[in-house]
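FAQ: What does a multi-protein file look like?

Like this. Sequence, then tokens, then the next protein.
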Amino acid sequence: MNEKRSQTIETLKVIAHQWRQPLNLISMEAINLNVQANLNEQVDSKHLLESTKRIEEQVQRMSVILKSILHLGSSESYKRLFSLNKLFNSIYDDFTKASKNKTIELQMSSMEDDIQIYGFASDLHEVLLNLLNNAADAYKEQSRDEKTIFLESSCDDKNCTIKVRDNAGGIPESIADMVFEQNFSTKITGEGFGIGLYIAKLLIETEFEGSINFNTTSQGTEFIITIPRKDICTLKFIH
């Protein structure tokens, strides 16, 4: 129970940290409007529209963060076996439908066998979608014509391995040791959506009893998730 309570507190801390920036920006815009109203009887409509747009964007950002956290495991009442191929297809649809990802190609490898994973499908969906969106964001500063992200999976008798790989220049060595820390973010002020790498690591380790690591070079980054298999292939029969 203490471990469960500790994880809940850590999750709430993450939400509080991610909400801090948009709340600060909303407060600044409110102060800005107040100052302009006091200096001028009629506030310029252009400035008014710019401020209200920024406030709307930050409120939407807070909504996305909260929805992402609340969505974890919410659609399922208990852990169950789910198809990895079906999960990949769902992730592909969600990623490619997002307007910001229209210029990025997602190459996905599905396995011939319908391998199943034990746990909450929605949690693994959020983790993988977050990794894909992070890779897409990494391409923002790239001028290259070809922008490709690879989602791959393979399984043996004991584990399933899922990889998310990009060619967007890699994670700088100076921050490589911090990417899974609770309050760390590479996003600039006003950005940053989804569950974050800290929560992703927490979910993989606690919900799936697996691990998440990454390799990075000057060419790109590869995140590697390893999850123990708990489907029928792991059962031992006594003859």
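And here is the next protein:
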Amino acid sequence: MRRAFFRLAETGAALSARYHRAQLLETKHLPPAGPVLLVGNHGLWGYETPAFFHLLHRATGRYPQGLAERGFFKIPLVKTLLPWLGGVEGTRDNALAALREGHLVVCYPGGAWETFKKPRHHYTLRWEGTLGFARLAARAQVPIIPFAGYGVDGTFVCPEDERWHVSLAPGEKYRVPLGLGLGPLPLPVRMTFVLGAPLLPPRADASDEQLQHFRERIASRVRHLLVRACHA
């Protein structure tokens, strides 16, 4: 059952990439083997993730693993299906284990803050001062590849009005915006993903100040790549 569901999801991801005419630029930066941490912006509802992962697999032959928001693992069906699709609960131990096993790991520092953002926050990095991915890279001593996706916030039209938002799960602080597409389908916007050159991680004993500097360096790269993706 798990294998059949995975194959079905693969087909869905390929169709999504085709529907959105998705392209992945600068694939030369992806290593054919060995651990690497990809860090970038998240789109509305995380809808773009299957198409992005499909393009990564097509470029490398590797199945990426994604660090997912912990709140999703409070939803009964989702917490069962996500691991089948390469989703890993975004704890430091899980992330370290994936990297030590040599995986290509995708991290969205904005997490649910970016996934459930309102229209006025489209294409902004809502990383909320997090240092988690910088600490992870320092501890694992793996390179980081920054990336950016454009078109990922235009798949659905969502209102600003808070009355059109619902809780992700009971007791969760995140609220999910309800949106409209092309009937039951998302809007057929084109998605463009751009990868940046790998950056060496901070030292394993880096201070918080050094980690903050590294975080801002990555954020600056992602913003630059967003502009490039927009005009690709």
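Q: Is there any per-entry metadata?
A: Some entries carry free-text notes. For the entry above: The radius of gyration is 17 Å.
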